[in-house]
Amino acid sequence: MLLAARERAEQAGMTVIAVAADEELRGPFLVARSIMGSVQAIEVASDSPGNDPLRRCLSAMSGEDDPSLASLPADQRLLRTLDLGAVAFRALAGDHGLAVLIDDVQWADDDSLRLLRYVVRANATNPILLLFAIRPEEFALVTEAVNLIADMDRMGVVRRLRVNRFTPAETRSFLAETLDGRRAEAERGEQLAAEEVERFRAWRASLAVVPAIASLRAHAEEIRAAELARRPDGEGLFRIMLALVAEAAAHVLRHDAQAPFVEAELLADVAADVMRRLRAAGIRSMCSVPLLAGDRLLGTLNAGSVRDDGCTGEELELLTQVANQLVIAVDNALAFHKIDELKEKLLQPV
Fold first, then answer.
1. Which of 294, 274, 298 is closest to 286 using CA atoms?
2. Is the pLDDT reported for residue 73 higher than 50?
3. pLDDT at residue 98, rounded to an integer
4. Residue 321 has pLDDT above 70, yes or no
5. Cβ(283)–Cβ(305) under 8 Å?
6. CA within 13 Å, CB half, 114
7. What pLDDT band is residue 329 in, cutting at 50, 70 and 90?
8. Which residue among 10, 68, 197, 302 sits deepest, i.e. has the most Cβ atoms within 10 Å of its Cβ?
9. For residues 61 and 59, what is the distance between their CA atoms, to the nearest angstrom?
10. Number of C-beta neighbours around residue 177 at 10 A
11. Residue 299 gets which letter from DSSP?
């Protein structure tokens, strides 16, 4: 009902502000501040004569009023705040009108309800529509809310609409309309996801033509092919290196390593049989660089050398630069996988 009223008010050119009271969250002028501090109110008041009344009203409601007025009695300060609120409502209404929709008004704070009563009395001739949704069984227990409706009733400006429960036929019709809306949103979400996936695929494909990455891929493949041609047991060596990757990752997790580390730091953690097989394969030195995406460990980049001094500062610096690029590629690949999973969920029947 509130949504339908909002659509009609917007079609009539009125400024529409919709808020909801909360059963547990209450405070002085909380609902009123939600109205005056809403995006719609600020947009209407900006660069217009209504900006100053709105600003002064919000300041008074927030306890940031003119310090010179602090000596006023409490009832006079309240009256001033109510008067500023009425002026702000009048400014927001302007010539096109203001529609304020409040859900669960029985949970509104007393100060906001008093302000609404004041607005009804002070701005009776202004184009202001107040639409309240209430729970009758609780509304009757809130004195200020009852007084608000009673005032409006005495002025002849209140209309009541009782919403009954849906019949079985109405329930079926409502559910059908809701499901149609959900299907439409799901189709729209699917289209957006498909567009994002295509953009991601195009971006990922473009990485192949980036000189540094293309050169790195080609160089790595050349090394692999040359190693396999030179060593009959080349595939065995790669299996050993895979074992080293697991050991290096375990080292990172055990020691929370954030920086590259070389063989001496790894020796204590790497299994003896892995070290023996590496030595037998001719590996004399090695180093590992953690692949960290923020605080997430994606893996390690490991390098071995047939030289005893194969892991110098320059090599570590180069490996670190390569690792940074790998982190971006792996992290994006994981994001791509997640996009695919979300797309599959969107494709599931509603």
1. 274
2. yes
3. 93
4. yes
5. yes
6. 15
7. confident
8. 302
9. 6
10. 10
11. E
The model carries a pTM of: 0.49
Helix (H) or strand (E) holding 37: none
Q: Residue 16 — very low, low, confident or very high, per pLDDT cuts 50/70/90?
A: very high
Q: Which of 300, 292, 306 is nearest to 247 (CA)?
A: 300
Mean of pLDDT over the chain: 77
Helices marked H in the chain: 2-11, 30-36, 39-45, 51-61, 74-93, 110-122, 136-139, 143-154, 168-206, 211-230, 234-255, 263-266, 272-280, 313-347
Q: Residue 152 contacts by C-beta under 8 Å, 6 or more apart in sequence?
A: 120, 130, 158
Stretch 172-193: mean pLDDT: 76
**Residue listed under structure tokens 């107040």:** 130
CA distance 283 to 231: 13
Burial class of 272 by CB neighbour count within 10 A (0 to 12, 13 to 18, 19+): exposed
Q: Please give the share of the chain, as a percent, with pLDDT higher than 90.
A: 22
User: For the chain, how big is the Rg over CA atoms in Å?
Assistant: 35
User: Which domains are delineated in the chain?
Assistant: 2-161 (no CATH), 181-347 (3.30.450)
Instruction: Give residue 86's Cα distance to chain centre.
Output: 36
Q: Report angle CA 328, 330, 336 to the nearest 5 degrees.
A: 100
